[in-house]
Amino acid sequence: MNLESFTSREYAVQGNLFRQNYDLKKLILIGEDSRTSLLPKDKRVCRFCGQSMPNTTFKNKAHLIPEFLGNQFLLSNFECDVCNKLFGTYEDQLSKMFGPLRSIFQVAGKTKKPTFKSPGEMVRIESTEFYDKEAVSLTRKDVTDNLFTANLEEGQMELTVHLHPFSLNKVYKCFLKMAYSLLPAETIAADYKHGLYYILHNDMKITAGCRVTGYSVGKNQIFKPHLMLFERKAGSNQVFIHYLILYFLNYIYAVPVPLNLKDLERYSNQINALNYPPLFLCGKNEIENLPIQPFYYDFAPEEPQKGQQQVIEMNFKKEDLQKTVSFNPETKEMNAEAVLNPETLKRIIIMDRENDGFILPLK
Ligand SMILES: [Zn+2]
Question: How many whole angstroms from 111 Cα to the centroid of ligand 1?
């Protein structure tokens, strides 16, 4: 697939190195209406466990990519109910890792308007209406919780949200399941039998680590969710064969797909996970001032990660914060002389977010 991609000057060398080694095989725009035609159930074979009817069933609607990421249309022809149930537990962990993000940006999945409740419902984020306009409401239970800080001089407010514990390894298996769903059936059958075993069982470890790298790109621009699957070019021997990249809200997750049989031959020669550069399918102007922050994680730990938190940053115009008006939703009373006191703030309603400006793939 020939698509022009861009990166910032800082990543130009890394970008060229990656392009020299990889071809883009698949680009999936999540949420686009690209319906899959489904086979009759008695003709289906589960790609993961190898079973077909009557040894297994295909009653559930199985999604190639989790529905909560906004995928309604890409359905699976090759995922039986038993595997679907297991993968559902992985998706649940991925959803916990994203925490309040989907609710803030109102990414519609199975529920049209996702609501987020932090542990103990200390913070609740949901869709609401304010003067007949769609808005997002952030409510905190206890104004003495210290989760909220404001710097009115700078026009910044921050709300810290605790996440529900989640297992990094199950999130990793969720990424791999997406990769295995997007690859051709022949490739999966021929080259990924260890990979399939790994995502279906608990007794196999990847000793080299479960590598996930990526980038966060600041809060002011968000991606239209999309996935890219890269394949190693012929002649390029020392890197992983497949690479899965997910662009979601303001994050990029890059996962070298492990356990390809052809890669295993090379594991002894130190196979190299070439770092994925932040590639964008849009031009210079949009990415010029993006604050690109790289990250690296080992997703091997299985036990749920506790105490993880996410900080929601809100930026306001300084002038606006100085001319605030108080409004009592019960009495509908307005007070034009009010001074904003962040310490007493119980609920924030965000509307007309500036920059619904998605970084659009494919202009
Ligand atoms: Zn199955």
Answer: 26
Q: Distance from the CA of 85 to the center of ligand 1, in angstroms? A: 9
Contact status, residue 258 vs residue 209, Cβ threshold 8 Å:
no
Give the global pTM: 0.91
36 CA distance to ligand 1 middle (Å)? 19
Taking the centre of ligand 1 as the mean of its atom positions, its distance from the CA of residue 51, in whole angstroms, is 6
In the chain, domain spans: 9-97+165-298
Cα 40 to Cα 167: distance, rounded to the nearest angstrom: 35
Whether the CB-CB separation of 183 and 192 falls below 8 Å is answered with: yes
Q: Rounded to the nearest whole angstrom, what is the distance from the C-alpha of residue 81 to the centroid of ligand 1?
A: 7
Distance 259 CA to ligand 1 centre (A): 19
Across the chain, which has 363 residues, the per-10-residue mean pLDDT values are 84 93 92 84 96 96 92 92 98 95 83 90 91 87 84 84 96 98 95 96 89 87 88 86 94 94 74 86 77 93 92 79 74 78 80 51 36
